[in-house]
Design brief:
Blueprint: H1 16-19, E1 27-35, H2 38-51, E2 66-71, H3 73-79, H4 83-86, H5 91-95, H6 101-104, E3 126-132, H7 135-149, E4 155-164, H8 221-224, E5 228-237, H9 239-248, H10 253-264, H11 282-286, H12 297-300, H13 311-315, E6 332-338, E7 355-362, H14 366-377, E8 400-404, E9 411-416, E10 420-430, H15 433-440
Antiparallel strand pairs: 1-3, 1-4, 2-3, 5-7, 5-10, 6-7, 8-9
Helix pairs in contact: 2-7, 2-15
């Protein structure tokens, strides 16, 4: 753990979507734009600089509501960003998510040729995200943002995905979501784990020192400072297949719930196994002051309580001594559900598209999102499990397994199918407000 230091973030220049956890419940929308006219694209950036919510706006006129704008590498080129500036962006971002598909495990059903159009194409230039506590305030936020792009014929909306909190306030596999949020130095926003020292601001925002003591920048400085990178993913969830797998590997409803907890690392109420190993505790699961305050190494290094291969332990090993210091690979994760809830008790797919829109926020695409995806989600070497993959989001194909440590004999669950299919994604740069104005003022 690193020492606490004092950092002053320029919150009025950072988009609120970078640092703020999403509200619960929530409604959200993602709108993709193509820039057909450079002048209109630059005008979009100028207008966006006055419409997006800054991290300094703790309370917006619509409550916990904000609008964010991000730009793809193709979008930066469409805006006419000079080549010498483009070359200072990380090479993963310049390549784009499609080119990185093999490294990310986006193969087979999840490969880019099967993605939902226009995701992953050169037509996607700008991503506008709006988030609010309910649909009424979401639509109000969109109405307020519409003048930003509404009368610019050279900017075309080409895709939209609406998301909303399910009635259960869980995601489609039945787990309470939106629990974990890291503390960032200087943000003024408390993290969800009281035992974790706040992370250096440079892990999430360009222009500040990160955990390694370095400072990530772009050229010119105004373009990069107070910006960040976002990996957007549309993930289709096979809810019926997940239910069948739990049923087929359990002797009854109670064992199903325990198995679901071992696979995730939490009971579906949100209560972590680390704090409630023997039974579910819905009150704990709903308590945001307690449900994420735990570590692993002192009490559960071997994973007898929370399996080392469980989803939440892979995604965030916390204090565990694993390959790759966990603090160097932390991200801000936000998931929002789309599609109808599969009816209770249904074990067959009804053909509906349902899943999560995920946003992974961090200043280092390579050692954050790509490392976690390739090394922690789709490999098990880091905790001594060979090529075992994450049981929830790993690129499983029916041949892998999941091991639950226990005494006297561990339990091995065979034939893990793929429960999550990638339907598309984009690497984006989320500029600071001054950078949006800089993009708007480009000439030539």
């Amino acid at each position: 753990m690193t020492e606490r230091t004092h950092v002053t973030l320029e919150l009025d220049d950072i988009q609120r979507g970078v640092l703020s956890p999403r509200p619960t419940p929530y409604a959200a929308t993602y709108i993709l734009f193509r820039i057909d006219d450079r002048a209109h694209g630059r005008e979009l950036m100028r207008r966006a600089s006055t419409a997006v919510t800054s991290a300094a706006d703790a309370i917006s006129p619509l409550g916990e509501t904000w609008v964010s704008v991000a730009v793809t590498y193709q979008g930066l080129m469409a805006l006419g960003v000079p080549r010498e500036s483009l070359e200072t962006f990380p090479w993963e971002f310049r390549q784009g998510m499609v080119a990185r598909a093999k490294a990310l495990g986006d193969t087979g059903e999840s490969s880019p040729e099967n993605w939902e159009a226009p995701l992953g194409t050169s037509d996607v230039h700008v991503v506008l995200t709006a988030l609010a506590p309910d649909s009424a305030r979401l639509e109000a936020a969109i109405d307020r943002a519409r003048p930003v792009y509404g009368d610019l014929p050279g900017v075309t909306a080409i895709w939209r995905q609406n998301c909303y909190a399910l009635p259960t306030e869980a995601e489609h596999f039945g787990y309470r979501d939106g629990i974990s949020h890291p503390a960032v130095e200087g943000s003024g926003i408390a993290g969800s784990n009281k035992l974790e020292v706040p992370l250096k601001a440079g892990e999430f925002v360009l222009g500040y020192r990160d955990e390694m003591g370095g400072v990530q920048t772009l050229e010119p400085e105004v373009l990069g400072r107070n910006g960040t990178f976002v990996a957007f993913r549309k993930l289709h969830q096979r809810a019926a297949a997940f239910r069948r797998y739990l049923r087929d590997n359990s002797g009854g409803p109670e064992e199903e719930e325990l198995l679901a907890a071992k696979i995730m690392g939490r009971w579906r109420s949100g209560a972590p196994l680390a704090l409630s190993p023997a039974h579910d505790d819905p009150d704990l699961g709903a308590d945001r002051g307690r449900n994420n305050s735990f570590l692993y190494e002192d009490d559960d290094a071997a994973g007898f309580t929370t399996p080392c291969g469980s989803h939440i332990r892979r995604a965030n090993p916390r204090d565990a001594a694993v390959a790759g210091a966990p603090r160097l690979h932390r991200m801000i994760r936000r998931g929002t559900a789309y599609g109808p809830l599969l009816p209770d008790g249904a074990l067959e797919d009804d053909g509906a598209d349902r899943g999560l829109m995920f946003a992974f926020v961090g200043a280092h695409l390579g050692r954050q999102f790509e490392f976690v995806q390739s090394q922690w989600m789709n490999d098990g070497v880091f905790f001594g499990a060979g090529d075992a993959k994450d049981p929830i989001v790993g690129t499983n194909d029916g041949t892998g397994d999941f091991t639950i440590p226990r005494r006297p004999v561990r339990r091995r669950l065979p034939s893990l199918p793929r429960f999550v299919v990638v339907r598309g994604g984009e690497y984006c740069f989320m500029p600071g407000l001054r950078a949006l104005r800089w993009l708007g003022d480009l000439e030539g």
